[in-house]
Design brief:
The complex is a heterodimer. Chain A is mainly α. Chain A has helices at residues 5-32, 35-42, 45-78, 84-96, 99-110, 117-122, 131-141, 145-157, 160-167, 172-201, 204-210, 220-229, 234-269. Chain A has two domains: 1-32, no CATH class; 38-269, MetI-like (MetI-like fold, Orthogonal Bundle). In chain A, α2 (35-42) packs across α13 and α3 (45-78) runs antiparallel to α10. By secondary structure, chain B is mainly alpha-helical. Chain B has two domains: 17-79, no CATH class; 85-303, Orthogonal Bundle (MetI-like fold), CATH 1.10.3720.10. Helix content of chain B is 70%, strand content 3%. Chain B has helices at 8-12, 20-57, 81-87, 92-123, 129-135, 138-141, 144-155, 169-193, 198-205, 210-239, 257-266, 270-303, and strands spanning 60-64, 74-78. Chain B has a two-stranded antiparallel ribbon. The N and C termini of chain B lie far apart (58 Å). Classes of the chains: A mainly alpha, B mainly alpha. Chains A and B meet through α1, α3, α4, α5 and α6 of A and α2, α4, α5, α6 and α7 of B.
Chain lengths: 270, 304
């Protein structure tokens, strides 16, 4: 068939303007200003604190969502129960609506502005302007990724091997560890990388609940925003954005590797 | 454990599997426990907050007398005027309208371009195609605020290209086109990959040109996927905040819905923020349902 070269030119031009130009500019700026200026911006106390807080939040949100995601995938794949469609839908809500709206929703549900907020506050739980709120918001917006990457693998692999293990006397935990987990591990890891990327980069939901208190409730994305918006420190904003961009690129490369591993794995099974 | 099948006594020593009945009870308890745990987790993280948001948005109020969440102390009232008053705030209707038409425009452009990009990625061959394919996911992986910073540098007042899109709707559109492109491409691409070429070849032998083949044979099969991609891109665009937070400049003219909600929270107008959020949720719900119904109708008509 004749190759539509005209279309190729149009597509490359569009992607060039919309995607390659901003990304290329990011890389160009990254290297044009020199390494020492970059280092001085990213080692500012505020920036370091923000990065540490981002990592701490991810250290809570990622394991939590991984356990819930794998658990839900096992339940959805192996059992049909009343209401499983509703639960399945609920997983997608946080990524289908605006992160800003998720932030407002969490504030209205759990802070003093909401109905039970003052009671929760007496129990020592406060969501607005606190690290608790940041963790909650980040966990919410990174909810579905592990489930969505694990469920298709589980559905495809079937239950033959698990049943064989059960008839040989293996308990549920042992079956999971030796039979199910090796099958789904690349899928789970794929979801974990997506969750990690989302938790480190989340801005909209966190900025609403955090109150943007410098040195206290600033994650790295909020520090980047604040440097530009409040302190007119464009260089600080740009250099710290580079850290997040580098994390995103590493995540993309890892995801690419995981996709090919997964493909090979399926090839082995077939 | 070595199994000597000739020696029957060794088979007896294998631990027998738990009885059917015990296993059934154990798995049932485990299943109910698992479902309750996940339902609780989802309630805390998603269901309670979103319900609280919508109830606040439509002016549903609960007063608790005294401390504690005890049910018998609640009294409730409904004042829908909260919703109407919030929409009468200066800029509210403009922000929601801007979000709506901009998101529709962006979803439409990327729907068309997504079809073209998917075609080139699947059917065309040229050096560097694999890299281009990986490139498509970059806007999805890049944190939105990073995109926001890059756009304000590249198209802001100090633009190295001398195109100042700061505080213009074109600036917003460029940012939204960037963040929604993966959704439009990835919705269509797998369908095109698995498309049976026999129909196209039949059309070719009947003398149909490339454009006609595409419009009459390929496009109808891709339409459901393209519509689904349209819905995803729209939902992403109407909710997008990070990438447009800086280039919008915070002026009313270029403040779309999500940025407007953020401005309201900055001045602690939570009830109004809830009302505008509810309106935005309703809009995206309507568009998502419409596109999924349309997509299902087309695939049903093709199937029959």
């Amino acid at each position: 068939m004749k190759r539509p070269t005209g279309l190729r030119v149009v597509v490359l031009a569009y992607l060039g303007v919309i995607v390659a130009l901003p990304v290329g500019y990011l890389i160009y700026r990254a290297f044009s200003k020199g390494f020492s200026s970059f280092m001085s911006q990213v080692t500012q106390p505020g920036a370091v604190h923000a990065l540490v807080l981002s990592l701490e939040v991810a250290a809570i949100a990622v394991p939590l969502n991984t356990i819930v995601g794998v658990g839900a995938a096992l339940l959805f794949a192996r059992h049909r129960f009343w209401g499983h469609r509703v639960l399945d839908l609920c997983f997608d809500i946080p990524v289908a609506v605006s992160p800003v709206i998720i932030g407002v929703a969490l504030v209205l549900a759990y802070s003093k502005i909401g109905w039970w907020g003052s009671w929760l506050a007496t129990q020592g739980i406060s969501v607005l302007f606190s690290v608790t709120g940041i963790v909650l918001a980040t966990t919410a917006v990174s909810l579905p990724y592990v489930l969505r990457s694990t469920l298709p693998v589980l559905l495809e692999s079937g239950t033959d091997q698990e049943e064989a293990a059960r008839t040989l006397g293996s308990g549920p935990l042992r079956t999971f560890w030796y039979i199910t987990l090796p099958v789904i591990r690349w899928g789970v890891l794929y979801g974990v990388v997506l969750t990690l990327a989302r938790t480190l980069g989340e801005f909209g939901a966190v900025v609403v609940v955090s109150g943007n208190i410098s040195g206290l409730t600033q994650t790295l994305p909020i520090y980047i925003y604040d440097s530009w918006d409040q302190n007119y420190n464009a260089q600080a904003s740009f250099d710290n954005a580079l850290i997040l961009a580098a994390i995103a690129v590493v995540a993309l490369v890892v995801l690419g590797i995981l996709r090919s591993k997964e493909r090979n794995h399926r090839g082995d099974l077939a | 454990m070595a199994l000597a099948l000739s020696d029957h006594s060794s088979i007896v020593t294998i631990t027998p599997p738990p009885s059917r009945r015990r296993r059934f009870v154990v798995s049932k308890i485990g299943r109910i426990g698992g479902i309750s745990l996940i339902a609780t987790y989802l309630s805390i993280i998603v269901v309670i907050p979103v319900t609280a948001l919508v109830l606040h948005g439509i002016g549903f109020g609960i007063s608790t007398n005294g401390a504690g969440p005890a049910l018998w102390r609640w009294s409730w009232h409904l004042s829908p005027m909260v919703f109407i008053h919030a929409l009468q705030l200066p800029g509210a209707v403009h922000a929601i309208g801007l979000s709506l038409w901009l998101s529709l425009l962006v979803a439409f452009i990327n729907c068309v371009m997504g079809l073209a990009i998917a075609w080139v990625l699947v059917r065309d061959e040229f050096p560097g195609k694999r890299i281009l394919d990986g490139f498509i996911d970059l806007p999805f992986a890049l944190p939105t605020i990073v995109a926001g910073v890059v756009f304000v540098f590249l198209y802001g007042p100090a633009s190295p290209l001398h195109v100042d899109l700061f505080e213009t709707w074109i600036g917003l559109m460029v940012a939204l086109l960037f963040v929604t492109i993966p959704f439009s491409v990835r919705a269509v691409q797998p369908v095109l990959e698995h498309l049976d070429r026999a129909d196209e070849e039949a059309a070719l032998t009947l003398g149909a040109g490339p454009v006609r083949r595409y419009l009459t044979v390929v496009l109808p099969s891709l339409a459901p996927a393209a519509l689904a991609g349209f819905g995803l891109a729209f939902a992403r665009a109407i909710g997008e905040f990070g990438s447009i937070a800086l280039i919008s400049g915070g002026v009313a003219r270029t403040t779309p819905g999500s940025a407007y909600v953020f401005m309201l929270t900055g001045s602690f107008q939570w009830a109004q923020a809830a009302a505008v959020s509810t309106a935005l949720l309703l809009l995206s719900l309507v568009v998502l349902i419409t596109s999924s119904v349309a997509s299902r109708r087309i695939s049903k008509r093709l199937g029959s």
